[in-house]
Design goal:
This protein has about 775 residues and is an alpha/beta fold. It contains 30 helices and 19 strands. It folds into 4 domains: about 375 residues, Glycosyltransferase; about 190 residues, Rossmann fold; about 130 residues, no CATH class; about 60 residues, no CATH class. Strands 6-7-8-5-9-14 form a 6-stranded mixed β-sheet, with helices on both faces. The protein is elongated and about 110 Å long.
Length: about 775
């Protein structure tokens, strides 16, 4: 098994290699039915030729992820439809006058998946494939046999032909189910029964080959091609396959046998599938075989996860096969980067073949994905913090509850996080976790932020909940991770951590209070600044450019971060996470006073504006003011003022900075005062609130400095207005609204504004829906 470093090195090599996929096939267009980038009129009169080559190439092209393609694949999709139409017009489905069954088995999957409707000619081709079963009822698998060949020249059934025939059946089940049911009638083609027979034959073939491969010494009649393709049938089509010990051991033994016959990176030829009249025998092509086998491990079912795990010990063998491909590549032109391969099946052909090239790249793309998944899993095992996850609905409720933050007319943190991070991901919806090189974040959407503010304001909880809402993995990095190998090794450790982070995708990463390196590790503030700039800045830029993860820093001390670390393309926003909002605190206090202290009718006379005014007066630079008996009182601050505790005359300011966990004590103090004043009356006046707040014990961190720091922090928020916020839109209006688009089942509006209040579309009004952060209701504006 390869180490993490070897896996990441292999992944980088494969990524570079796979970038040549599309350009190389474009340079080999002569072997494909149609030019992939046609000029006007190219498709009008050309009849389909090289049917299997075309099908293999089109299929291979779509194995390349969007970021590797370099061309607009809408054209290729249109050409697939045209290919299907013209292939069905062709009566002769052979290759060089031979292999009529092979051509149908290999090309029909692409024709069926690219056709707008089920065609009678498709039915005729399927009938031609299955004709050998009618002639010989004892035959269950498919081989190169049929009316085109005299019976004495029929090839025995093989797992390659049978696999592709079963692929035809499955495409019909998924796309043309009614036709599949019709053709399953015993009086028609009896498809269901024949599929069951092929599956049983495939299991028998797999068991037989396992026995031949397990013999000691090895049997002289074993066939590793048939072992691989019968294993692919079992993994791809067997509906009884599930994750259990028996199947696990069975598949494990199959892989052990298969890789035991690998030599010099590749496998030798075994029995031929058929022969060409002019060129000789045709064999299974090893890269086509292993491309299909690896794709069985890249499915979304739980069984495929088991297959990936069992394949992992053979990663070196798979890389050896790729290196064999790299050693046998052929430059398409002198000095050209584009490359091709020759299958070697035809003795009269030594030039690169487009179908062979497509097969090699399909294998390389599947291996790139598989190794990317293994790299991601290794990184998670080294980084991840074990924790229980919330359902998306519970996480959304938690974010809404925790995200109601203090501030008159301030956009709540929950709305900011929802519109900057959650909605863009939901709108883009790139949730293919089996493509580790996808980019689930669009270029104009945010992927990072620094969350700052007083301690205990749920910064960590908000990021965890955000990850659960979008159902991405969550990783938490602490200061202790960077100093795990000692302060002198901080740089080396940081390199290691960021190398692991670079292997992640569809993940939310939180650097939680890494500024504690300054406070608790006896490092100078300037030393931390140097660490941020030299160790983190370039690495954060790489994570930002990759557009694969969301990352956040949570800190109590935004002043420790210099301008280099917080500029654009490092962090897209600085978001102040204030203590809970006035309304949230009042609602919680009323609930506690009612449920615990039996005061159901509580009236709250103090207002947010009054408390905010006292907080602002306290936060002024040299002096502060308070009012006593309708007269202003001036408070002069000495040099030690910041380290002093809050004076009673400013106790109302404490209400703004109270955390959720402190509201229980405040409710207890209020209950005692209210019951002493009047057991029947429960009105919380300014004086009552001030008295109760004075009695609330100050935590160690809350001194005058806490209030002045908070007031300073309110001026530190910023965001990059190149990054668009996204709102989900709900509307009963039947007319189209400019800028509102429909994707992934919802309507969305993108704007570079701070809140829903600033959205302006002439003729329409937008209102944030209560209890639904990031979601607006549209109404037609009423003309005055």
């Amino acid at each position: 098994m390869l180490s993490f470093e070897e896996l990441t090195e292999a992944r980088r090599s494969l990524q570079s290699f796979c970038l040549l996929h599309v350009p190389s096939l474009l340079s080999l267009q002569s072997g494909i039915s149609f030019k992939l980038l046609p000029t006007e009129g190219d498709l009008d009169n050309e009849q389909a030729r090289h049917i299997t080559t075309t099908a293999t190439c089109y299929s291979s092209l779509f194995d390349s992820p969007p970021r590797f393609r370099m061309i607009d694949f809408k054209n290729v999709g249109n050409l697939q439809s045209t290919f299907a139409e013209k292939a069905l017009l062709r009566e002769d489905w052979t290759s060089e006058g031979s292999a009529g069954v092979y051509c149908r088995c290999r090309a029909l999957p692409m024709v069926i998946s690219s056709s707008a409707s089920f065609d009678k000619r498709i039915e005729a081709h399927i009938k031609a494939i299955l004709g050998q079963l009618d002639k010989k009822p004892e035959r269950f698998g498919i081989g190169e046999a049929g009316s085109a060949l005299p019976e004495n020249q029929w090839y025995p059934p093989n797992a390659f032909h049978t696999y592709w025939t079963m692929e035809i059946f499955d495409l019909m089940i998924g796309g043309y189910h009614a036709d599949y049911e019709r053709l399953s009638d015993p009086k028609a083609l009896d498809l269901k029964r024949r599929r069951e027979g092929m599956l049983l034959w495939g299991r028998q073939q797999l068991g037989s080959q396992l026995g031949l491969h397990s013999a000691s010494p090895l049997s002289s009649v074993l066939d590793s091609d048939q072992l691989a393709w019968s294993l692919a049938i079992f993994l791809r089509f067997d509906e009884t396959l599930n994750v259990n010990l028996e199947n696990r051991d069975f598949i494990k033994q199959a892989f052990k046998c298969l890789f035991s016959t690998q030599a010099d990176g590749t496998w030798r030829h075994y029995k031929p599938l058929f022969h060409y009249k002019e060129a000789g025998n045709a064999y299974c092509y090893v890269f086509e075989t292993f491309a299909v086998l690896l794709q069985c491990a890249l499915r979304k079912e739980a069984e495929a996860e088991m297959v990936r795990e069992l394949l992992k010990p053979y990663c070196k063998n798979l890389m050896d096969l790729w290196r064999y491909a790299d050693s046998t590549k052929i430059p398409l032109r002198p000095g050209s980067k584009e490359i091709g391969w020759c299958s070697g099946h035809r003795t009269n052909v030594t030039d690169p073949e487009s179908w062979a090239t497509a097969s090699v790249f399909s294998y390389a793309q599947a291996l790139r994905r598989l190794i990317g998944i293994w790299c991601r899993e290794e990184a998670h095992s080294n980084l991840n913090t074990p924790r229980s996850r919330l359902s998306p609905q519970k996480a959304a409720e938690e974010m809404t509850f925790r995200g109601k933050t203090w501030g008159v007319n301030k956009t709540s943190v929950s709305e900011q996080l929802w519109t900057m991070f959650i909605n863009p991901v939901r709108m883009h919806e790139c949730n293919d976790n089996l493509e580790p090189d996808s980019q689930p974040i669009e270029r104009n959407h945010a992927r990072s932020a620094i969350l700052f503010g007083p301690p205990g304001t749920s910064k960590t909880t908000l990021v965890r909940s955000l990850a659960d809402v979008i159902e991405w993995k969550y990783v938490e990095i602490h200061a202790s991770h960077f100093v795990a190998e000692g302060l002198t090794q901080v740089q080396k450790t940081a390199d290691k951590i960021f190398k692991q982070l670079s292997e992640l995708d569809h993940a939310v990463v939180l650097f939680d209070e890494i500024d504690e390196l300054v406070r608790e590790r006896d490092m100078e503030k300037d030393a931390f600044g140097r660490f941020l700039t030299t160790s983190m800045l370039p690495k954060l830029a790489e994570l930002w450019d990759a557009r694969k993860i969301l990352y956040f820093v949570a800190t109590n001390h935004i002043n420790y971060f210099d301008s280099a670390i917080i500029r654009s393309h490092r962090f897209d926003a600085l978001i102040l996470v204030s203590p809970p909002s006035f309304s949230a605190k009042v609602g919680e206090l009323k609930k506690l006073l009612s449920e615990i202290y039996g005061l159901p009718e509580v009236r709250f006379d103090a207002t947010e504006q009054q408390i905010q005014k006292e907080l602002e007066d306290l936060g002024k630079s040299r002096t502060s003011f308070s009012w006593r008996y309708a007269l202003p009182v001036v408070h002069w601050r000495g040099p030690d003022w910041q380290e002093q505790k809050l004076k009673p005359e400013f106790a109302l300011a404490k209400f703004a900075l109270l955390r959720w966990d402190e509201l229980h004590e405040l409710a207890y103090r209020l209950a005692g005062i209210l019951k002493a004043l009047s057991p029947s009356s429960a009105t919380i006046s300014l004086d009552t609130l001030r008295e109760a707040l004075t009695q609330v014990a100050d935590s160690q961190w809350r001194k005058n400095k806490s209030y002045s720091d908070y007031m300073r922090d309110t001026q530190s928020e910023r965001r990059d207005y190149q990054m668009l916020n996204v709102w989900e839109v709900r509307s009963d209006i039947e007319v189209s609204v400019p800028g509102v688009v429909f994707t992934n089942g919802c309507w969305w509006l993108s704007r570079a504004v701070d809140s829903s209040r600033e959205i302006e579309v002439p003729g329409f009004e937008f209102e944030l829906l209560p209890g639904a952060p990031g979601c607006v209701q549209i109404r037609a504006s009423v003309s005055k």
